Task: inverse folding
């Protein structure tokens, strides 16, 4: 759920500006899942732009406080949200941990890196939501360690119905700075894309698994 449309539009504008999000309907990307996609998102690029990085950091920190007050710990989902998650934790003056996709195969075999006590309240920071499975895997790991996960805040979501269903099934509250609908609106209004491209992008959103087959 996007909390503030102005923030959503501004975030979309900045992501397009630095090519963290690329829209290429005529030359689709292939995701790891095998899906063909006219959009590719790499929010890690944000970290290389201090002004934009600070904007995203401040907006996420603001949302953490507005929604949850001060949790005990901020957790980032590896690897994409480690950097921005740590910046949010630093801004709020809170401890930080990050969650691997799975436990390490050596050493202490940690899945959660950092110090986390049972029953501590945690807000999870994520960079991107597609189906939500990897993000919710991190939530599961935190809960299994005894953490009280209050919710998740992400930079961007594609807004797939499967993600909505997955978060609902796990009873995890999700908020994002921006989403696909605001991105496409912003791209169209600023002439970043043409009308024919807009129609293609809207068609993909309605059925991404079968698009362009």
Result:
């Amino acid at each position: 759920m996007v909390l503030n449309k102005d923030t959503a539009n501004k975030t979309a504008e900045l992501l397009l500006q630095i090519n963290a999000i690329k829209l290429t309907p005529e030359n689709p990307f292939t995701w790891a899942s095998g899906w063909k996609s006219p959009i590719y998102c790499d929010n890690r690029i944000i970290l290389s732009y201090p002004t934009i990085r600070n904007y995203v950091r401040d907006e996420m920190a603001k949302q953490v406080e507005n929604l949850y007050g001060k949790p005990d710990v901020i957790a980032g989902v590896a690897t994409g949200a480690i950097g921005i998650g740590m910046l949010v934790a630093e801004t709020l003056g809170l401890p930080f941990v990050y969650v691997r996709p799975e436990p390490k195969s050596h050493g202490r075999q940690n899945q959660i890196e950092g110090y986390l006590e049972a029953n501590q309240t945690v807000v999870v920071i994520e960079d991107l939501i597609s189906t939500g499975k990897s993000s919710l895997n991190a939530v599961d790991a935190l809960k299994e360690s005894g953490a009280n996960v209050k919710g998740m805040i992400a930079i961007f979501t594609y807004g797939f119905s499967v993600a909505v269903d997955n978060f609902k099934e796990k009873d995890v509250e999700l908020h994002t700075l921006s989403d696909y609908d605001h991105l496409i609106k912003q791209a169209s209004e600023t002439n970043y894309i043409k009308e024919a491209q807009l129609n293609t992008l809207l068609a993909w959103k309605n059925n991404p698994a079968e698009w362009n087959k």
Q: What stands out?
A: The two ends are 30 Å apart (CA to CA). The first helix runs from residue 5 to 17. Helices lie at 5-17, 50-68, 82-92, 133-144, 161-170, 180-189, 195-206.
